Amino acid sequence: MSKLEEIWMTVSVGVLVIFMVIVGYQTYALGMGPPSHKETIDPQKVEQTAPFDNPGLIDLGDNKYELVMTLEAFAFNPGNVEVPVGAEVEFTMTSKDVSHGVQIPGTNVNAMVLPGHIQKITHTFDEPGEYLILCNEYCGTGHQAMFTTITVK
Ligand code: CUA
User: Which residues form the Cytochrome oxidase subunit II copper A binding domain (predicted)?
Assistant: First the structure.
């Protein structure tokens, strides 16, 4: 092997190692990794575990709401929710069976909802209208029928 080849191989492996050390340090020492696996739940016991034992819209006052929602093939529970204009809604979601997705086109709500994990996402509905909530993660033969709405008025 020529001397130049050796130098470049050493440099490229060195750069790789340096980047891995930097990313590892940021993730584990500085806690800068993306949030994930924060809250878990036994997917077999969703119906017995609070707050999912009582899914629904909770009025927190001050036009803030928590929407506790379970996803299963092929439905959102509860569906067809209604909130006032300007409502800040925190979606608290989990799946009772397989991996689902939740997306509200035209908003920043777009996340995976996995069995065993609690997914939280907050959105403020400033514009009145009927918003589509759809599953964007293929979950079985009824996937395309898995949607509901949230009405803002
Ligand atoms: Cu649920 Cu696709």
Answer: 53-153
- Give residue 116 CA to ligand 1 midpoint distance, Å: 16
In this structure, the chain runs to a length of: 153
How many angstroms is it from 125 CA to the middle of ligand 1? 23
User: What pTM was computed for the model?
Assistant: 0.77
| ipTM of the shown complex | 0.98
Q: What one-character DSSP code corresponds to residue 58?
A: E
Domains of the chain, by residue range, sit at 1-33, 46-152
CB-based contact 95:114 (threshold 8 Å): yes
Q: Is 137 in the pocket of ligand 1 (CB under 6 A)?
A: yes
Q: Cβ(113) to ligand 1 under 6 A?
A: no
SS3 10: helix
CA-nearest residue for atom 1, ligand 1, is: 100
Tens digits of per-residue pLDDT, 40-62? 999 999 999 999 999 999 999 99
